[in-house]
Amino acid sequence: MRNFVRTTWLAIALAGMASLFLSGCDQQELIRKMTPTEDYILARAFVAQVVAGDMASAEKSLSPEIKADEVLKGLESLTELFKHGEIKSFEVVGLFFRAGFGNKQSGKSTQLTVQMELSTGWFVGTVVTTIEGETRKIASANFESIPDSLEKLNALNLLQRPLWAQLFLLIVVAVPLFTLYVLVLCIRTKMTRKWPWILFILLGVMTLRLNWNSGEMGFQLLGVQLLGASCFRSGLVGPWVFGVSFPLGAVLFLIKRRRLMAKAAADAAATVVPLAEVEEGVRSEKE
């Protein structure tokens, strides 16, 4: 009964951890709340001025530290890129903050990663705002044209990827399931020093990662992952990156468990043989 209660409690705890790992709050809503209103208004107004070709107004929003020739070239290139289109959507999909030391306001800056749809196409870029004195200024703005929205470009599209990528994703799913299976076996196995083995089983070593969008792969020799797999994306609509690690702890425990079972079977056989001999001796005495 005690083992049943312990196993049930651990299963509930693992289920709770999995639900926290897989679920999460609305990322779009989270970015909206984290984006400073003043920075968003400044960035959107600046981009709108550039799109409309209003160079004079856009130049007033720029930091005075930017050289005059750089300002002119930058604004002209952005205007040429946008082609005086009409803004249909302006969405912040990523944030990065840099804070100054002490009370120096000039050291603070906010980098907004922006996805924008114009009547002339889709664009993605970064707008960096900085605090100079009591006012906010644009420190830099860089954009590039993209063929479609990031949501579509970086979508999973499972059936549109090559077979080897689908097999990799299958391994990413299979390794945590295998790890959980071995974990249950460990919990139900009678042995000493069980908790170190449980922790060892939960961690996968060495990590192979796949960028689902570009197909690029990377290997991390010292990588460690919980349950031997991971899935994340950079920003709100960045490319999906899957990772898988070798379940070394799970494999070694299966080897150890097999040895424990073989030893237990040998001990049981050694116990049965003497009993059989005693029974045979009793029979011979009766005869």
What does this structure look like?
The chain is of the alpha+beta class. It folds into two domains: 35-153, Nuclear Transport Factor 2, Chain: A, CATH 3.10.450; 155-273, no CATH class. Helices cover 50% and strands 27% of the residues. The protein is built from nine helices and eight strands. It has helices spanning 2-22, 27-34, 37-52, 55-60, 68-82, 150-153, 163-188, 194-202, 248-286; strands at residues 87-98, 109-118, 121-132, 135-146, 203-211, 217-226, 229-233, 240-246. Strands 1-2-3-4 form a four-stranded antiparallel beta sheet. It has a four-stranded antiparallel beta sheet with strand order 6-5-8-7. It is elongated, with a radius of gyration of 31 Å. It starts with a helix and ends with a helix. Mean pLDDT is 77; it is low at 1-25.
Number of strands: 8
Tally of individual helices: 9
CATH class of the largest domain: Alpha Beta
* Secondary-structure-derived class: alpha+beta
Describe the structure concisely.
Helices cover 50% and strands 27% of the residues.
Describe the secondary structure blueprint for this structure.
Blueprint: H1 2-22, H2 27-34, H3 37-52, H4 55-60, H5 68-82, E1 87-98, E2 109-118, E3 121-132, E4 135-146, H6 150-153, H7 163-188, H8 194-202, E5 203-211, E6 217-226, E7 229-233, E8 240-246, H9 248-286
Antiparallel strand pairs: 1-2, 2-3, 3-4, 5-6, 5-8, 7-8
